[in-house]
Amino acid sequence: MYGRDPWGGPLEIAADSATDDDRSRNLQDYDRAALSRPLDETQQSWLLGPGEQKKKKYVDLGCIIVSRKIFLWTVGTILAAGFLAGFITLIVKTVPRHHHRPPPPDNYTLALNKALMFFNAQRSGKLPKHNNVSWRGNSCVNDGKSDSSTLFKDLSGGYYDAGDAIKFNFPQSFAMTMLSWSVIEYRAKYEAAGELNHVKDIIKWGTDYFLKTFNHTADTIDRIVSQVGKGDTTGGDPNDHYCWMRPEDIDYDRPVTECHSCSDLAAEMAAALASASIVFKDNKAYSQKLVHGARTLFKFSRDQRGRYSVGTEAAIFYNSTGYYDEFVWGAAWLYYATGNNSYLQLATTPGIAKHAGAFWGGPYYGVLNWDNKLAGSQVLLSRLRLFLSPGYPYEEILSTFHNQTKIFMCSFLPYYTSFNRTKGGMIELNHGNPQPLQYVVNAAFLATLFSDYMKAADTPGWYCGPHFYSTDVLREFAETQINYILGKNPRKMSYIVGFGSHYPKHVHHRGASIPKNKVKYNCKGGWKWRDSNKPNPNTLVGAMVAGPDRHDGFHDVRTNYNYTEPTLAGNAGLVAALVALSGDTSVGIDKNTIFSAVPPMFPTPPPPPAPWKP
């Protein structure tokens, strides 16, 4: 069979005897032979059909392609790990936990908790709900109103001085200054003991009262209150010493004593307000109120010279021997509170230091107490030299104070004979006179504090003559004395009420010795409780009594106040010493808080001059 070839030649088409199936297979063979490169799976599937597809070995995750085995192994591992973690978490949540208890508080911390409670028991006025002394209540809320001779009509509040109900502002302000100083230096330790808010409440109760005792809004004043109540019993009239009554039941007149020339009292009150302003620096309005009051009081102390106790009954109980030590003390605290250099210039004036007794010794040199603050001022200003070193024109007197501090620190050590010691080990800072413990605790505080100052200044110790002593020696002295008070003495007696199992039970204290039984005992009606041989019905927790005699003897007799009466000033020193020794020994002082208001010691250099232009 022939057909026409479009290119001009004949086209022969031969008859094909093969079947269509054979022809199709031949064509497929030709197609495979014509492929010169391998095909991927998609192409093979398209060309070869579903019959010859292979099982997938990879998983396409979009961004990457991974092996199917690796993918399945990874997913399985993640699921197994999640299940295991959940199972472990379930076990941890359901099994009871065994908490590791913190170490028990040391004796100093335990005693600190109690010592602060004494101030709650001494509060006058309308008490706060959280006072936590069940046998105390509101008392003497009309102080000031009942005395027509005074300009100050609201004198409620503050603290009773000791076992009576008199408010002596001189020792009371010293007590508040000591508490504030201890908070400024050892805030972290108060916080660790859970007592920071408590001690701040105690301080504020005192400073709120002080603001009532003078015109704190004025810049210049001519009088302040020095005392509320009366203690002179020579006339036989009912008063705070003649009568033995619970403060809540007092119905006799409580006169107000004012002073117009009282440099010592005014400067001490200025120190109390100035130091408290640093404690409350986060409460700006209250802190500024305290600073203003401190400035006013200190100006009054400088303008109206005189001793507050002259011609008053305070000379019997809290006689002041001078006021130049308060000038140094008050000026130092006002400098720290304000940063005003005029106060530092006054505190470092050689003439004032001379009149304060800085350059002559004497039997009580280095002994801090409610009357003489020179030792405290020397330590306080040594701090300035150690950490800020202001240099000229202050360096001469600051270095003198620093050297004098080292000298009286030496006198505390048992290697020297400036002060005797009892056979039981108590240092006799008041040379065998009654009521020794108030002096002991102040010395323990200063020794620990100065030791911490030296440690913070990377100073390993100091020289006493040719002998070098490490800072640890001062701490050991303080611990020895406080341990004596806590019970490590020949009588095995704690001199802090409520601490330990053996402590004074007949404390000279009106409120603690009269039961709260809804019976009002009049002025003389309470004498039976004063003279009773039975233990006090109310425990005056935390009260440090006056202390033993020079032979380590102690008479637990209520009427013998030289042994059994506690005081505000004594307990303030105790609190300061306890917090300084408490807790972790690696926690030292707060170096910077006291300097918050102090400007840089050296002025910033002036900017460079402008470029010269012709």
From TrEMBL:
Catalytic residues (UniProt): H508, D556, E565
Protein name as annotated: Endoglucanase
Classification of source organism: Eukaryota, Viridiplantae, Streptophyta, Embryophyta, Tracheophyta
All residue ranges annotated as the Glycoside hydrolase family domain in the record: 108-578
Gene Ontology MF term list: cellulase activity
Single GO biological process annotation from the record: cellulose catabolic process
Region (Disordered): 1-26
TM annotation in the entry: 70-92
Acetylation keyword on record: no
Keywords annotated in UniProt: Carbohydrate metabolism, Cellulose degradation, Glycosidase, Hydrolase, Membrane, Polysaccharide degradation, Transmembrane, Transmembrane helix
Catalyzed chemical reaction(s): Endohydrolysis of (1->4)-beta-D-glucosidic linkages in cellulose, lichenin and cereal beta-D-glucans
